[in-house]
């Protein structure tokens, strides 16, 4: 399933964890864990810290898929 998640991310664009979970037919919690695993393996890197809901001041606001989810922003490494 990690390979499929990585394929989805490599397709480009922005993705919400809930959308990835639906595509992978799993839970958002498992997707979050897989994202962390991919980061530990060097495939992803975290961009900034946790979102705090201050989207108006965020330089990634126009690209971000987290919005009100208060999630993390990741990028392919």
Fold and architecture overview:
The chain is mainly alpha-helical and about 80 residues long. The chain has one domain: Arc Repressor Mutant, subunit A, CATH 1.10.10. The protein is about 40% helix and about 10% strand. The protein contains three helices and two strands. Strands 1-2 form a two-stranded antiparallel ribbon. Helix 2 crosses helix 3. It is globular. The model has no long low-confidence stretch (mean pLDDT about 80).
The CATH C-level class name: Mainly Alpha
Overall radius of gyration: 12 Å
Structural class: mainly alpha
Average pLDDT metric: 82
Largest sheet: 2 strands, antiparallel
Overall geometric form = globular
Number of helical elements: 3
Please indicate the percent range of residues in DSSP E strands (runs of 2 or more).
Answer: 5-15%
Label this structure with key terms:
globular; 3 helices; mainly alpha; two-stranded antiparallel ribbon; Arc Repressor Mutant, subunit A; 2 strands; 77 residues; single chain
Which helices and strands, and how do they pair?
Layout: H1 2-10, H2 17-24, H3 28-40, E1 44-46, E2 74-76
Antiparallel strand pairs: 1-2
Task: Give a short summary of the structure.
The protein is mostly helical and 77 residues long.
């Amino acid at each position: 399933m990690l390979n499929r998640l990585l394929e989805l991310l490599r397709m480009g664009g922005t993705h919400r964890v809930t959308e990835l979970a639906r595509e992978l037919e799993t839970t958002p919690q498992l997707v979050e864990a897989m994202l962390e695993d991919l980061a530990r393996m060097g495939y992803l890197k975290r961009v900034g810290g946790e979102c705090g809901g201050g989207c108006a001041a965020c330089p990634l606001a126009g690209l971000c898929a987290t919005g009100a989810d208060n999630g993390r922003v990741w990028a392919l490494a």
